[in-house]
Amino acid sequence: MDDPIYHVDAFTERPFAGNPAAVCLLSSERDDRWLAGVAAEMNLSETAFLVPEPDGWRLRWFTPTLEVDLCGHATLASAHVLWETGRAPADATLRFRTRSGDLFASLEDGAIALDFPAEPAEDIAPPEGLLSALGLESDSSARNVARSRLDYLVELDGEGAVRALDPDFRALEAATQPARGVIATAASDLGAPQDFVSRYFAPAAGIDEDPVTGSAHCTLGPYWATRLGRNPLRGRQLSARGGAVGVRVCGGGRVRLSGTAVTIARGTLA
What we know:
- By secondary structure, the chain is of the alpha+beta class.
- The protein contains six helices and 18 strands.
- It has an 18-stranded mixed β-sheet that branches.
- The model has no long low-confidence stretch (mean pLDDT 95).
């Protein structure tokens, strides 16, 4: 049976911005080699695979080179496809069973809201080679370095410093292992509509720079809520494509991410 597949731009209101994801709707489980092959063929930062279950969907995410534990933009894209195609009613709360536990999606005020686990970061000394691999001249170039379960976080002095980063990706790949990647961030120089800005690099996962990283905001939300003293917040990712992520830090170790998505293409896997 042919499996429907969709190309969706997530965390954006317009085509050709935000973060592209492929969403593949499967009628039954497929083996890991086939899933990895499809993701490599799609060659997007993530491909999401959905299998229906009695009370939701099994959801897995693959980059072109490996399976990942958590992905925000491909989850948002998956929810968008389920609602757009009528596979889920608009008033439903969607449940996704994943390697990071159960995740939920709902429609709120014209956007998709994702209920995700918070990934708070603890301050650490910068590991050897991390800052130089980012292209920073010295340890004093960073205001702070922290580590979450998934990623390193490096706070810089302002938006200009985040925009100007020119990493050595092969050196960064070595410096970040075994972490997934590194978030570079700063408080917004301009204020509203965004509270903070970021870029995200994950060369070890086959993604030198990710356009908009929902899961990184599971760390950025708690980090900036504490430092800025406000909640909810809005982040802007300063990649070439760019995108915006709303984030609210909730109780019980959870965050709510929000954004919109646009379908670019529809097809089938033969």
